[in-house]
Amino acid sequence: MTAITKLTTVELKLLVREPGSMFTVLIPLFILVIFGSSIKPGDTVLLPMSLAIAVGLVGLYMLPTTLATYRERGILRRLSTTPVRPGSMLAVQLILQLVLVVATCGLLIAVAGTILGADLPDRVLSLAAAFALGTAAMFAIGLLIAAVAANGRAANGVGVLLYFPMAYLAGLMQPTSQMPVFLARVGAYTPLGAFRQALQDVWAGGTPSLLLLGVMAAYAVIVSLAAARFFRWE
Amino acid sequence: MAVIEVSDLTKQYADLTVLDRMSFSVEEGEIFGILGPNGAGKTTTVECVEGLRRPDGGSIRVLGLDPVKDGRRLRERIGVQLQHTQLPENIKVWEALDLYAAFYAEPRDWRRLLEEWGLADKRDARFGKLSGGQKQRLFIALALVGNPRVAFLDELTTGLDPQARRATWELIKQVRASGVTVVLVSHFMDEVEELCDRVAVVDRGSVVALDTPAGLIDATDAEHQMRFTLMAGEATDPAVLLGGLPGVSGVSRNGGQVVVTGRGDFATAVTATLARNHVLVADLRIDKRTLDDAFVALTGRSFHR
Fold first, then answer.
1. Closest-CA residue of chain A to B105
2. Which residues of chain B are at the A interface, by a Cβ-Cβ cutoff of 8 Å?
3. How many domains does chain A have?
4. Spatial strand order in the sheet of B2-13
5. pLDDT tens readout for residues B112-146
6. pTM for the full model?
7. Residue A127: which domain range?
């Protein structure tokens, strides 16, 4: 087995053993199932919301906490004394956190589609585009947190602190129709808000507006660049 | 044959000169100690040698390779244990060894390392559940799993209890016996004295002395003491008898207790004189001169500030 496949295998085991992964699966699933029992058939809001919550939790909580902890514990530094470059660990982590996102969202869609009888979108390409850009934007923010946080606990704290206002502005705490107009308007252009709206547009049978996709792409690129600028290996 | 050659190594951070024309060489098969107080530049030195840091000046050759230019090839051949490094809490001992073995082209059999380092019964234990000594043994095993020619061990026994330290020392001697050159960074005098074939004493970014531990102690010629108790009824005045011997600088007496102070090998002269004059003494003790004394003599200040 090559070094990278071995690294991926071991990191996958560690991800499964990490209690945080379980929470990022269970929290959106819990919200989906609890509120799912009282939704109307053909609802296009709840499933996109729970998907946005899942991606938000992985991007803002799992990814930065893992990376900042690895730096804090000198694991990246230790790797740089071996023939394997620490950048490989970064790549492996990004791939595995993406796997976690896909697995969680797959589970949510499967549960919603079967047990709750929710509609599933037929515009696969639009869904993939919204999903890819939304995930990229949330991961970019996670990378920026990992870059600037002093240690794993700080990254965890920043992630949680950022999550709640972002989730509120995105309309994940209460429907945007019940939010103050100004906040709802601003929230639509936050990464998580644009993501939720884009998913909702897909579920409603349309295509997400180019503006929303552009907003997510812009966040992904600009925040990633900032993360790359501030990232430290030690 | 020298496996490491460092000459005129310099490194600055902003205005602070961390390394100032540091030079030394490490011979194949020895345990080479780098000793100095915290902040002397020990860790920066080995990190430059390992290729983790880029020096500002001077030259480094490790196994004939330049750590900056030939980093990839060099990292295949060295093993490193870093200060303050941990593993993920939930990784199992065998997984860590198996993983690190996969990083190298010609690794050692990690199952044998597990046996050698007394970790066989901890094979499936998670890193977070290991004791300090077990973690340290795992780190050494990880430094060796790539089958290195040179192993760098940085502050290996910090935080270990005395028993675990002793056990670790024995293991380091085994590493040398297996043919691996060891570079040991330490701020513990006793550790360096016990383990190292040669020691570079580092202070303020340069090597102030380089010799065997015994050579360093002898060369500094620090004043030290011997003590004995005169047998009851012994009438000889030790100050008269011993005061003029070569090397002796003082004799003091408190009842039957005598303390002789001097430099060099004055103890041999004192015991010979006592025997020749049939002076019966008990509890004869020579205070062991240590690297601590040598360090004070070399740098003009105490090691433990």
1. A83
2. 50, 52, 72, 75-76, 78, 80, 82, 84-88, 90-91, 95, 98-100, 102-105, 146
3. 1
4. B16-27, B2-13, B57-62
5. 999 988 899 999 999 999 998 899 889 999 999 99
6. 0.85
7. 3-230
